[in-house]
Every structure is written in structure tokens, then in C-alpha cells.
Amino acid sequence: MLKLRVLTIESVAVDQEVEELTVQTANGVTGILPSHSALLTKLEPGVFRFRAKGQEVRMVGSSGSLEVIGDKVTILIDEVLPIGEIDVERARAERESLLNVLERRDMNVYELQDARKKLKNVNAKISAVE
User: Fold this and answer.
1) ∠ CA 49-76-47, rounded to 5°
2) Which pTM does this prediction carry?
3) What is the mean pLDDT of residues 28-46?
4) Where residue 126 falls among pLDDT bands split at 50, 70, 90?
5) Among 18, 45, 87, 128, which one is most buried in terms of CB atoms within 10 A?
6) Tens digit of pLDDT for each residue in 96-111?
């Protein structure tokens, strides 16, 4: 078993034993099983899955980081939601708003990076439910 902890700035979203975990990393989809080698990697926005007590749980998360040490897995992430809690209409409206922001020509590089990051996160939410 793996001890999975998913932490946001605001809360501990997940703290339980799981049989396996699948995440979207910068290098593609990565599966984590017990006795996995040590790993520190960047997470990309998208769906991650884990199996606990024989049940698959699917959540969508923003970018973040993942650390595996022994059978302890820690995910540090800005935002995470169970798939069933995604308000797809709100996410679509947010995407339209961000696309309008990205069309502006008066943004500095930091505002542009922030808008792109937010757009990747909202696209992950929409993709998770479509």
C-alpha cells in the first residue's frame, strides 16, 4: 500500500492508503505502485487517479509537484477537485474570459504566464468531464 497525501495551500485534500496512483507529469502519464523508486517530478494540470479499497477515485488537479519516498507519496498542488464537483459551465465561462485576456496586447510577461497557467488548469477541468 501507498500512503498518499494531496496537499493544497488551504487543506489536506487526500490522506489515505491507496493501492496505486496514476498522475500526469511533465514527461507524460506516470503510474506509482508500492515499492516505486524515489521520485521528484512536476505535475501538469489534469486528471489523476488512485485506487483505494478497490474503488477508483478520479480527481482533477492544477500544476504542482509529486514526491515519492518509499511508500509515501506527497502531492503539493494549487487546486484539486473530485471530478463530480466540477461545474463545467463555470469552467467554460472562465475559459472564455481567459481567452479574452490573452488577446490583450498590454500584458507584461508575468501576467501572460499567469493567464496561460490558469487556462491550462481550466482546460484540464473541462477535459476531465467531457
Assistant:
1) 25
2) 0.85
3) 94
4) very high
5) 45
6) 999 998 998 888 999 9
The number of C-alpha atoms within 13 Å of 85 and in the hemisphere containing its C-beta is 9
d(CA 2, CA 34): 6
Angle between helices 88-103 and 109-129 (to 10 degrees): 150
- CB neighbours of residue 107 within 10 Å: 14
CATH number for domain 2-83, candidates 1.10.10.10, 2.60.40.1120, 3.30.365.10, 2.60.15.10: 2.60.15.10
Strand pairing of 46-52 and 55-61? antiparallel
Q: Rounded to an integer, what distance in angstroms lies between the CA atom of residue 72 and that of residue 117?
A: 28
